[in-house]
Amino acid sequence: MESYIELIIQANQKKFTDVERVIAQYFLDGNKELGIQELAKKLSVSNSSITRFCKKIGLANYKELIYLYKYSSKGAKKQTDSSISYVNLNYSLLLNDIIEKLDKDEVKKAALMIDAGRIIHYWGTGYNAFCGEDFQFKFSRLGKIVNVIKDEHSIAMMAHGVQQGDLVVVSSISGDNEAVQEAVKIVSEKNAKVIVITANEKSPYQDFSDAFCLTSSMGKKDMGGISPQIPVLTVIDILYTEILAMYHEDTIKSWIKSEVILKGK
């Protein structure tokens, strides 16, 4: 397993400048820890570049980086390799990435559409289908009728049955299934509202969506044992919480009423 510092650097490497990549590689190669001035001289970079690198990976300063680097490389490896520490760090990195990518305005639009709609069609295959069950559980409690479709053949068929005014939530981490894309195009032409949840910022689904909720997909190496549906489940939680925040009093009353009905009281 990678150390804490390796995971943090790898999770942020897409943001690095060329100079920051040089600094990152120094630590990824396991080189000797140096003072900031010594390191700057060795790598032919400025002190400020090293400080910016530290902040870019979520650390306060170079002193914190060196402390973490020493902790990772001197006898504490067993502790950092424990399953609890490893998964905890990966969750933190993943959640930070999701929050950074998710657009607040798109969340607001999506929440308003969910709140306004009564019949919601949730489309998702594979791991995304599991997320549909969570979506259905949450929003059914708010009085919504949620129809979860779990395979692309059924999605293609159901697209023709969607009516104007319906809401379709498409969950796809890859965001590039041609059959689903065609289905999304069909429902958008019927003037049905479409929310897309995906990790693909260039997804062709975006052209037919009314709200585009971009989440994270850190890749198998970076995920470190985290269930791949977590990025979508996190967006669902955020949308649900957004609605609770917008209409707190009415929502809580509806929630309590549904709980009473479910319990048969």
UniProtKB/TrEMBL annotation:
Parts of the chain that traverse the membrane: none
Residue intervals of the HTH rpiR-type domain: 3-76
Descriptive protein name: DNA-binding protein
Database matches in InterPro entries: Homeodomain-like_sf, HTH_RpiR, RpiR-like, RpiR-like_SIS, SIS_dom, SIS_dom_sf, WH-like_DNA-bd_sf
Record's keyword annotation contains Transcription: yes
Native organism: Enterococcus ureasiticus
A biological-process GO annotation: carbohydrate derivative metabolic process
Pfam families documented for this protein: HTH_6, SIS
Highest taxon, organism lineage: Bacteria
Domain SIS: start-end pairs: 110-249
Gene Ontology MF, one: DNA-binding transcription factor activity
Swiss-Prot/TrEMBL keywords: DNA-binding, Transcription, Transcription regulation
PROSITE patterns reported for this sequence: HTH_RPIR (PS51071), SIS (PS51464)
Positions in coiled-coil regions: none
Statement: the UniProt record of this protein carries the keyword 4Fe-4S: no
